[in-house]
Design goal:
The protein has 292 residues and is an alpha/beta fold. Helices cover 45% and strands 16% of the residues. The protein folds into two domains: 224 residues, 3-Layer(aba) Sandwich (Rossmann fold); 57 residues, no CATH class.
Length: 292
């Protein structure tokens, strides 16, 4: 642990909690093919919680996505989510006057997105390095926590720029922290980014960084702790023959779930971080960019 400075101690706590959260799941290095890893990336419990809005970490990010996406979706907009996962990000930004598409690498995950979104979006299976759409088609592209998984991230960001119309918007999120090798293999990450990395990355692709979006750095860390706590309690209940999702775990007293109680306690911190100057934070890797 080196000198045991506070930041390093927090990182080791993150690593320990990640190991608990991913208990029993294979790492990327243990898989023969990355497609198999990503087909098994989301459990049925994950899909249930994420699609219901029960994971409050994703809910609050979804609210930021909705606000920014809707401000950049003209009437009749064409919208693409690259690496759409189970479709929960698209779910937050659906609007009747726009057409939505998702691109997902793993077939099983794409099927979950189709079940969630129905006929509200067209979900294709494919890779971010070869997006199956014509150049200049989209008014808005989302790419949320995806490019860190892609071997050729420069090719992928150039593909995203290609399918954006001139002046079209990109909402991009990339991970900043967690340098541990276990974290990389557990989550399928190949690299992480700083704010400076992101600005240069976008510029080389012909994209202009327009603004830094709220990613609630301290709140997100404690929110992850809260979520993992709920997962641990859910595992304990399974030993008793019950199978609640992390969002359904309830305390012996009161009507609210454990997750609601924990996130209510964190809400003042989230409110404070709403007003941060994200353009000045090195952890700001959640951005709005625009094609030149």
């Amino acid at each position: 642990m080196g000198h045991g400075n506070p930041a390093e101690i927090w990182d080791y706590l993150d690593l320990a909690l990640l190991r608990l959260a991913k208990l029993g799941r294979k790492s990327l290095s243990a898989m023969e093919e990355s497609a198999t890893f990503y087909d098994e990336f989301f459990t049925d419990s994950d899909v249930a919680v994420m699609s219901s809005g029960g994971d409050l970490r994703r809910y609050y990010r979804g609210m930021v996505l909705r606000q920014v996406a809707w401000a950049n979706m003209p009437t009749g907009a064409q919208v693409l989510d690259v690496g759409c996962g189970i479709g929960d990000n698209l779910q937050y930004i659906l609007r009747d006057d726009a057409t939505f598409f998702g691109l997902e690498y793993a077939e099983r995950t794409a099927q979950a997105a189709r079940r969630l979104l129905g006929d509200r979006a067209v979900i294709d299976v494919g890779s971010a390095v070869a997006i199956p759409h014509e150049s200049g088609r989209f008014d808005l592209v989302l790419c949320i926590e995806v490019l860190e998984h892609v071997d050729k991230d420069e090719v992928a960001i150039n593909e995203i720029a290609r399918v954006l119309r001139p002046g079209g918007a990109l909402i991009l999120s990339l991970p900043y922290r967690h340098w541990f090798p276990y974290y990389f293999t557990a989550m399928g990450h190949l690299r992480h980014y700083t704010r400076t990395d992101v600005a240069r990355f976008l510029d080389r692709a012909g994209l202009v960084l327009e603004s830094h979006l709220p990613n609630f750095p301290r709140w997100s860390r404690f929110a992850n702790y809260a979520y993992v706590t709920c997962r641990i309690y859910a595992l304990m209940f399974r030993l008793l023959g019950r199978r609640p999702s992390p969002a359904e775990v309830r305390l012996p007293f009161g009507k609210r779930s454990l997750m609601q109680v924990l996130f209510s306690a964190l809400e003042p911190l989230r409110q404070r971080e709403t007003g941060l100057d994200y353009s000045a934070l090195e952890t700001s890797t959640f951005v709005l960019a625009r094609r030149r």
